């Protein structure tokens, strides 16, 4: 498990996903009295340590919202929802706390989340890390559908597969690719 604080109240963490034989990334974002968990995975390497850290941040009365980029990224969503009484699963068409927006990922079964307060994109499978600090589009037919994301000029691109990427240059390079 790796946990990385990217900015105040914005964290990215990894956990081993045995079903694919790789580590995957998840995102934590706290805005006001809401804790948002994107594609959350309870890290099997240290579940108790993870719960201790999350329990410290979820104050009594805080709302916990689970947001999923695509159905295959449900991961530990139900465990997160079961743990906190004031929790809910975000549904397409609903407004998320903190101005978070769901945007097209270039295909009908996936969304990208935009966290405007940190200028961060949370991406499921449409974009992945390239292993060299950059990004690549996972399928060639997604390039055109992802182009509108360039207008956001993200400070962070937080992928499920690969390391977080800072700045919009890697996004421009991947989509132009």
Short account of what is shown:
Helix content is 17%, strand content 34%. It contains four helices and 13 strands. The protein starts with a strand and ends with a helix.
Describe the protein in words.
The protein is an alpha+beta fold and 177 residues long. The strands form three sheets. Strands 1-2-3-4-5-6 form a six-stranded mixed sheet, covered by helices on one side. Strand 8 (111-115) and strand 9 form a beta hairpin. The chain is built from four helices and 13 strands. It has one domain: 4-Layer Sandwich (Metallo-beta-lactamase, Chain A), CATH 3.60.15.
Q: How would you summarize the topology of this molecule?
A:
Elements: E1 3-7, E2 10-17, E3 22-31, E4 34-38, H1 47-57, E5 63-67, H2 77-83, E6 87-89, E7 101-104, E8 111-115, E9 120-123, E10 127-129, E11 135-137, H3 143-146, E12 156-159, E13 165-166, H4 169-176
Parallel strand pairs: 4-5, 5-6, 9-12
Antiparallel strand pairs: 1-2, 2-3, 3-4, 7-8, 8-9, 10-11, 12-13
Which key phrases capture this entry?
177 residues, alpha+beta, six-stranded mixed sheet, five-stranded mixed sheet, 4 helices, 13 strands
Biggest sheet, in brief? Answer: 6 strands, mixed
Class, according to the CATH hierarchy?
Alpha Beta
Low-confidence stretches: none
Count all strands and give the number: 13
- Secondary-structure element order, N to C: EEEEHEHEEEEEEHEEH
The CATH homologous superfamily: Ribonuclease Z/Hydroxyacylglutathione hydrolase-like
Structural class: alpha+beta
Strand order of the largest sheet: 1-2-3-4-5-6
Gap between N and C termini, in Å?
31 Å
As for the CATH topology, it is: Metallo-beta-lactamase, Chain A
Please give the share of residues in helix: 10-25%
| Radius of gyration over all CA atoms, rounded | 15 Å
Number of domains: 1
CATH architecture label:
4-Layer Sandwich
| Beta-strand residue percentage | 25-35%
Mean pLDDT: 95
Shape: globular
Distinct helical segment count: 4
């Amino acid at each position: 498990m790796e946990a990385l604080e990217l900015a105040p109240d914005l964290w990215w963490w990894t956990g081993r996903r045995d079903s694919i034989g790789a580590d995957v990334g998840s995102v934590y974002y706290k805005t006001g009295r809401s804790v948002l968990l994107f594609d959350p995975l309870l890290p099997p390497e240290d579940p108790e340590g993870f719960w201790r850290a999350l329990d410290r941040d979820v104050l009594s009365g805080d709302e916990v919202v689970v947001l999923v980029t695509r159905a295959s990224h449900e991961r530990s969503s139900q465990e997160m929802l079961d743990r906190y009484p004031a929790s809910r699963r975000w549904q397409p068409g609903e407004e998320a706390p903190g101005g978070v927006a769901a945007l097209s990922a270039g295909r009908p079964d996936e969304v990208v989340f935009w966290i405007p307060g940190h200028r961060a994109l949370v991406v499921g499978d449409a974009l992945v890390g390239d292993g060299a600090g950059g990004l690549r589009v996972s399928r060639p037919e997604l390039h055109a559908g992802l182009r509108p994301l360039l207008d956001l000029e993200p400070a962070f691109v937080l992928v499920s597969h690969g390391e977080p990427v800072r700045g919009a240059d890697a996004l421009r390079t991947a989509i132009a690719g």
